[in-house]
Amino acid sequence: MALSDSDIFGDSDAGTVPVASSASHAEREWNKLHAEFTNAGFREGAIAGKEAALQDGFDDGFASTGAPAGRALGLLRGQAAAALAIVTKHGPAEFEGELRDIVSALSNVRLHDVVQLDDAAPRTGANAELLEVQPSAQLEMDQLEATLGQLGNTPTAASRDPIAELRTRLAAALNQLGLPLDV
Asked: Essential protein Yae1 N-terminal domain: which residues (predicted)?
């Protein structure tokens, strides 16, 4: 078999293109493509629906819980940091340790310390089967740190609400300094 210039692979049928041998083959291919695209469209629609439901839940939770708690914590942290800066620069030095402790404690407060999270809530809704709730690694680490921090301590009413305890301590320190607590 001699190779021509146009037949670089040595095929004897270089100029022909294979055509479906029957209409049934074309029909099977059409059905396969139709099923694949239908399934892909269904998956994309289901994902979009889940995202919309999750976004609505996030928006509601953020507006009613996350934003107010974050704002209150941020205001306390700002006042404590400002008071520490004033005391560090202008004295009296005896309040510096207490204010440093308050600033440090406020920086360690996490959302689950301030707001009681309802672990069962996502699984009780109408779309419970759509939501696979897995605790994040950060939340697990925060819970572990909190547990380790409580070893040897007995929980008190103040330790269940760290914001209230720290607000009280900050107010007492600021009162002794003659500064107002604007939170």
From this structure: 41-80
